[in-house]
Amino acid sequence: LEATLSAAADPERAPLMRVTAWRMRGEAVELPEPATPPPLRLPGPEGGTPGEFGWWTAEVAYHRALEWRFLSGGFEAPGPATVWTRLGVPLIAGEAVTPLQRLLVMADAASGVSAVLDWEAYTFVNVDLGIHLERPPQGEWMAMAAETRLGPAGAALCTSVLHDEAGRLGASTQSLLVARR
């Protein structure tokens, strides 16, 4: 599947955003034992600490769409973080949100929760987001264990292990453009 977002005023100009996705059939496969290690289970969201973006004060914005429960790290603590999230608003009014949609909304924040630079001194924009799943997500709560690593030439890489309440379900990657503000 592919979609491209272009400026309405100049649709012939370079695309503003592009998304591609592969749809794969879901079919149970008998595997030899032990084919994979048992899924790692994180402590549940009830044990996490609520998180707030102290520097992001807009009342209506992305960060307010999710409930945040940090198991480690935080928005104000530079470095790796593990956080549970729950989407608190529908993506489209009147439509139920799917577990996959909940996961995708959360995964976009991996480089934000694991930021290693001062938000006011640097910008670090994710120029791509890759989601790689071992199985379909389930339930309301989604979690990620995210880490951002800086390179010496204005780039960084954020990787995250993705979880739901049943355990590990995949990984995400973000390539980051890093610059001084």
Describe this structure in words.
The protein has 181 residues and is mainly β. Helix content is 7%, strand content 42%. The strands form two sheets. The protein has a seven-stranded antiparallel sheet with strand order 3-4-5-7-8-9-6. A two-stranded antiparallel sheet has the order 1-2. The chain is globular and about 50 Å long. The termini are far apart. The model has no long low-confidence stretch (mean pLDDT 88).
Descriptors:
single chain, 181 residues, seven-stranded antiparallel β-sheet, two-stranded antiparallel sheet, 9 strands, 7% helix
Give a topology summary.
Blueprint: E1 2-5, E2 17-20, E3 49-50, E4 66-74, E5 77-87, H1 99-107, H2 110-113, E6 122-133, E7 141-150, E8 155-164, E9 167-180
Antiparallel strand pairs: 1-2, 3-4, 4-5, 5-7, 6-9, 7-8, 8-9
Name the beta content range.
35-45%
Number of helices: 2
Q: Shape from CA axes?
A: globular
Gap between N and C termini: 36 Å
Largest sheet: number of strands, sense, barrel closure: 7 strands, antiparallel
The percent of residues in helical segments reads: under 10%
- Rg is 18 Å
Biggest sheet: strand arrangement? 3-4-5-7-8-9-6
Structural class: mainly beta
Average pLDDT: 88
* Total DSSP E strands: 9
Order of helices and strands: EEEEEHHEEEE
Low-confidence stretches: none
Compact description:
By secondary structure, this protein is mainly beta. It is 7% helix and 42% strand.
